[in-house]
Amino acid sequence: PPIGLESHRIEDDQILASSMLRHGLGAQRGRLNMQAGTNEDDFYDGAWCAEDDSRAHWLEVDTRRITMFTGVITQGRDSQIHDDFVTSFYVGFSNDSQHWVMYSNGYEEMMFYGNVDKDTPVLSEFPEPAVARYIRIYPQRWNGSLCLRLEVLGCPLSAVSSYYTQQNEVTSTDNLDFRHHSYKDMRQLMKVVNEECPTITRIYNIGKSSRGLKIYAMEVSDNPGEHETGEPEFRYTAGLHGNEALGRELLLLLMQFLCKEYQDGNPRVRGLVTDTRIHLVPSLNPDGYELAHEAVRVQQVEEWGRMWSAGMGCGSVGWDGKAVGCSPTFTAHHCSGLAAGLQAGHLRCVREGDGTGSMETRAVMAWMDKNPFVLGANLQGGEKLVSFPFDTARPSPPTPAAGPRPLDYEDERPELQETPDHAVFRWLAISYASAHLTMTETFRGGCHAPDVTDAMGIVQGAKWHPRAGTMNDFSYLHTNCLELSIYLGCDKFPHESELQQEWENNKESLLTFMEQVHRGIKGVVTDQQGEPIANATIVVGGINHNVRTASGGDYWRILNPGEYRVSARAEGYNPSVKTCHVLYDIGATQCNFVLSRSNWKRIREIMAMNGNRPIRRVVPGRPMTPRERLRLRMRLRHRMRLREQMRLRRLNATVTTSSPTAPPSSTALPFPFSSTAYMPWSQEPPTAGTWEMDTETEVVTELVTETE
């Protein structure tokens, strides 16, 4: 197994070099897969580089214990400008760092052949293991400048010399399957867990990958397969990148742990399973993992990881949730896998031509819409921190003096925008980071750059690594779910021997974060007959982010402790407002709402009769404009004509009934009139004009009369 250069188990002071080109290219930067900073030529470059081209330079690692070395993995410099890598080297060993023995083939010093490019890792195995404490690499030939990234393989044969490291070595007591699982092994393990705990587990799939592999999920609940009213739904997802295997294995271990502890009567686990519907998806990108798992054998994980998880120029679901297509230079083939879908947690990449997302992306989005998730996290790798929304940083608005920006303009200081639930997200992120055994130990810095978390292990995504179209932003803007990204460590694909340590590091954090789904308020929205109201809106005063009720009328809203003014609104109902108190203890406050029906339906019918135009209300005492006065006079005249017609009809009907032979009236009307031409007033259907006239003139009749 690797001794830990990439995972940072080897400290900076355990790596020495004969020289360095500058501080940013020192020995501490010579770790496998070390990435350069945003600006090259700073303190955080992408390799160790010697100060000149002498063959006397070396890179040394102190394991602080007797170790049986079995090989090394070399890599060139991470750079967009330089093409530096070592092509051949010697290896030396020592027990005191003073006397060195070169590795030989029995006749002469053995030459090992390294890289042919700067990115692809190359494994060099020793024909026979060597036992020592120190190991040195002596580069002999290289391309460009003498630059190197390194990982050393070996097994410890004695106790560690450092007291600090010894105190932090943990051996798990849980009887779990600590090994890497292929797709077939993963499916078999999930089946075994389901057979051991059939009453609380259920296996289902949320869709298929581009290559036809099913994306399996496991539900853990006391009533699997059924959404219980009042029970929140939680999700953990992993495997967004094919080469990030730690999250996948942690979720498989969590399945086993929940099953065993539930059967053993663990009250904490029993309460969590009984009161929560838990969904675990260990591999959102099964295609990418299979390729990465195979590439591990030839140590080309990083290269495969870039191909299958970097997005490769694909578009994204933007800030407003609208899809943006792939670059014309990349076809749908390049967008396959969740390289095609969820890059670093991104809902990325739509297929060229039809504008629709990849199969994985569509499956995940449909799954998110189908289930009323309240809280979730996606497990990733490459750093050790918790990231929360927003992940998108909007460009700063241009000033008039600056003029238009060029098309290739890049804002060095984009505008950061916090979510309305920023304080809630910080609480959730801290709940995971603080329970992790090493995540808040930031004095060593980050994996590739200085600590960006202010020694807390948490950071807003836009502040750290701004990008558009992430799963976190999509979940927050388009669903009820609060989603975070959990970066588990520097080593994306740790050795099997390290899985026990990683499980112990994350076990308490995984449980604590799931328990946060029961913080805040919850309840049911019904009508006066007790029927649930689906899709009702829950509004919390002072927080501009609303949630909606599920099909059973139930809702959940994660909130920090405090007092909140909460209202429930629904189409066709009068809103209801309550004051809800959230306590510090785990357990959501019950806030139910009963809504009464409103007369908005009748009001809309009346508005439709008026042509959906606003109904003007004349306020007494406010002077009218000349235009309003003219319109009012025209309506009054029309009303007087209608009243005169009604009076004449009644008069004509009375005369006809009392004296059928009476002579006709000598008073001639100014318009032709027939008693059979009009229906009786009580039977005439109202028209938009008469209704509008009645509505507007009744209020002002007295006022207008006095004015005239």
Automatic annotation (TrEMBL):
GO terms for cellular component: extracellular space. The keyword Glycoprotein applies. Residues 179-517 form the Peptidase M14 domain. GO terms for biological process: peptide metabolic process; protein processing. Transmembrane segments: none annotated. The keyword Membrane does not apply. It comes from the Eukaryota. Keywords: Glycoprotein. Residues 1-155 form the F5/8 type C domain. InterPro entries: CarboxyPept-like_regulatory (IPR008969), CARBOXYPEPT_ZN_1 (IPR057246), FA58C (IPR000421), Galactose-bd-like_sf (IPR008979), Peptidase_M14 (IPR000834), Peptidase_M14_domain (IPR050753). Residues 389-412 are annotated as: Disordered. CDD domains: FA58C, Peptidase_M14NE-CP-C_like. GO terms for molecular function: DNA-binding transcription repressor activity, RNA polymerase II-specific; metallocarboxypeptidase activity; RNA polymerase II transcription regulatory region sequence-specific DNA binding; zinc ion binding. It holds the Pfam family F5_F8_type_C. Belongs to the peptidase M14 family. This is AEBP1 protein.
